[in-house]
Amino acid sequence: MELIMGLEALEAQIKQDLQYLNLPITSWSLSKNCPENQVIDVAIIGAGMSGITAAFALKLRGINAIVFDQAASGKEGPWQSPALMETLRSPKHVVGPALASPSLTFQAWFKAQFGIQKWDELDKIPRLQWGEYLQWYKTMTEPHVLNQYHLVDVQLNDNYRELIFNTPEGTVSYQAQHVILATGMESFSEANIPSFMNDIPTAYWEHSYAGTDYRRFKGLDIGVVGYSAGAMDSSATALENGANSVEILIRANDMPRVNRGKVAGSAGFTNAYTYFTDAQKWHYTDYVAKAKTPAPHGSTLRVSRHENAYFNFNTQVKFIEVKNKKLHVTTTTGKFILDYLILATGYRINWAKDRAFHQLSLLVKTWGDAYTPSFHEENAELASHPYLGNHFEFQAKSNSDTLKINQLYCFNLSASLSMGPVIGLIPGTNVGAERLADHIAAQLYLNHQEQHLEQVKNSQEAELLGDEWLPAAPPSERMQLTDNVE
Question: Is the per-residue pLDDT at 11 higher than 80?
């Protein structure tokens, strides 16, 4: 019978691993870091996977960040809601945010509780279980998280960034030297709602990322626009909750079959991407975006096993009307009468969406400002993405605003065009977090370089006490030994 290690033993192993590596190291910052007075070196906005990984990477370098999240403790990230997939797309052995210890991986966490046999039987990581693992990871790495802190404004100046939060105790502000925006896939973005929905009351539709209770679709005829992973997850969830039918409206003549981006997922590509020219970054990202990413095999089967799921190809929505409390959807292949419509139509950048970031739209350089592609590679969505420096830092449109912007970091999916697959996706999370943490550590040191040098010059810690030897007498005063023994 297999002996299962148990989480307690694993947690003891993690503490031992970190001790062997002398981690985490003692704080060395000479700044005015004082969380009690709301003055801090590094603020991280978002306590999801990216945020807590960045916090741990900084802690391993002797930097104690403060992490702010608008959700209640244990509810951070999309894993409980609004995500709907049964399993992750990433392979089960993905390293993810483990960083300093292999015992911090999902694999170690799973095997400690369920054993090797169950691990061998596991195909993909269940979504909810990944959420449980991240909560455990947070417990083990102990970031300083302030929950139910909703960022409502960011005031930028040359010396610090002032962050203003609404909290259960009222409005609170913090001054931070460095601010990491780990705000998830919807950062600076809004749901991409097609124009054919302009006059349709919101009681009849939602975006696939809304995270509502699908039990209310029991007995209803549902339409889903799109063929992405989100479309499959929404369709399957509606069917599993008793929808009478799900009509999947797909404007393409076929589903994409090959995940082009998967082929590039090597350590070589991940590390080389930062050396790509702007033209190379744009060409790669534009190609993969236009080639489309297929929904996962299992997610698609999750839909097609239902006899009342209908895949309608070459079906582009032309217009929609509400008649007798039903949606009459006219498409290129005919008319559908539906009770409700789910739009799996993705996201688009909208810098004005969140008033907390209203200054950014005027100050931040975008790819549209920095690069002009060829006619065949024009892509308005890519042009709206932030144009970042080599370490996730925003760049200013005007040189006069550089000091306001360059200690503000985009550590979310909208950084992908600039940085490659090292953010927002589980396999590259560790690479991105360490790259960001190394840069911030260097900047915190350089900001106080003279004081650090003075520490060197004024150091009084003696390693030799002066009693470790006896001074030798001059050679002329020493007794000369000869080989004459008479």
Answer: yes
